[in-house]
Amino acid sequence: MQNIVRYFSISTLALLLLMGCEVTDFDLQDNPNYLTPDSADPEYMLNEVQYLFQHYMKWMIINTDDVMRYEAMTDTYGDVVPTSVMDGSTSNEWDTYYEALNNVRTITALAEEDETLLFHSGIAKLLMGYMTVTMVDYLGAVPYSQAVNNAEFPNPELDGGAELYQTVLGDIEEAKDEIERANFEFSTDLFYQSDKDKWMAFANSLKLRMLVQARLASADIGVSNIQGEINSLLSENLIDTNEEDFQWSYSTVQEPESRHQYFQRAYVSGFDQYIGNYFMFLLKESKNNPDPRIRYYLYRQSDADPFSGPPYLPCQGDPDVDYCYIGDQYWGYDHGESRVGRGDNLLRTVYGIYPGGGSFDENQFVGAPSTTDNLGGAGILPLLTSSYVSFLRAEAALTLGANGDPASLLEAGIRSSMDKVMNFGGISSDLEPTSADVDAYVDEVLSDYASATTDEERLDIIMKEYYLSAFGNSIESYNFYRRTGYPSDIQVPIDDDDPVFPRSFPLSRLEIQRNLSLEQKNNYDKVFWDTNPDSFIK
Prior knowledge:
Number of strands: 6
Helix content: 40-55%
Order of helices and strands: HHHHHEEHHHEHHHEEEHHHHHH
CATH architecture of the largest domain: Alpha Horseshoe
Largest sheet: 2 strands, antiparallel
Strand content: under 5%
Shape: globular
């Protein structure tokens, strides 16, 4: 878990200075300078919501990158997701969420009196809905209905997760209606440049994602016929092309810091983390045909043999370590490896060009901070893509009998991801994968799917490909791992065969101290849609 240093863009800082408002110290206390409908500029406020949204989402992703084995977890689950009253690792994310909630409620209040703000209100509700769903998926119950209203509710109480899902589903429908009726654009839209069709596709896709996410507890969110609900939604406008993908684009600007978090972690100074060996094994060794995305996802800094050191990989000769080294200078750590600090920062494999805006791997074998052939951090945050939608539809078709052929949707998800990754960054290299490489990979997956004898085996294949395509957004994999238990071969911590996997995250430590209605929860507490057994996943 990271101790987040909050920052704002120059435009945001200028706005705050002009308004004299103090939104960075969000402690639910009365503030005479706090934003009100009378003092707010809705255009600037919605830009601030969009900024806060990506800031919140990127750090929720960082929170589970190591839990989900994209990065190596070099602690225990209890260290990464602490549960004591004085711990709690989501304080900054918590404050960002409620900062955004206050702004969104101000925007929607303004729109009730001004129809030129319907588009603003619809977008604000969709962004807030996505953030609220993510809060529920990570934390469970959180204050919502009583929040950001200190005069009436100085100690806002919790709203249940299923109740909040129902609230967001209602907000999505309201947002769609507002966007449809809107006659005025949001002129500085940082996601879709005020394209109404794309916002409608996002709204429907977010609803699909929620229905699939809650499929094990659909009655709890008031859905009695989830198959019918999903089938009805499939006839609507969904994200089904890469041009419609819901993503945040970063830049190369350093002051204020606007580069992708992966680039900051790997290319500004020596890489302090390790890429997970399980993830690299899946890409490189788990199939007869290596994953064509590997040189886009990963960049090797050195051609040194990690067994010829010093420094040596600490796992050398250790029979309890599953992978240790997968070869070809792909230098990472196993899940749960705690022997760190060996001076190998410029030898480890780091993030590549996708999605973090680093380097495409052309066998340069040059330390990442020294490379000049990178995108300078101008990566993307892939939040809800056509690939993800295809995998969600495949899961729904297989497990719920929803419309669509699971195998065809599986293929669509893989190919959409391949197309997105391989066309990112304008690479021209003799080491680029070919269409034949992609076809061979897809054919192998589909052959394995056709050979599977049970729906559980088929779902395992779908989720593994979803896992590989979701690199850069571990929110997706953290959710579907708890929902399905797949990939089934995901690595267990090497030092603990029976760990307690964090089924949720703790509440904000600071909020526990200042809100008398809250008590800290445990990391083994399950969110409402996670109806699986306690020892279901590790």
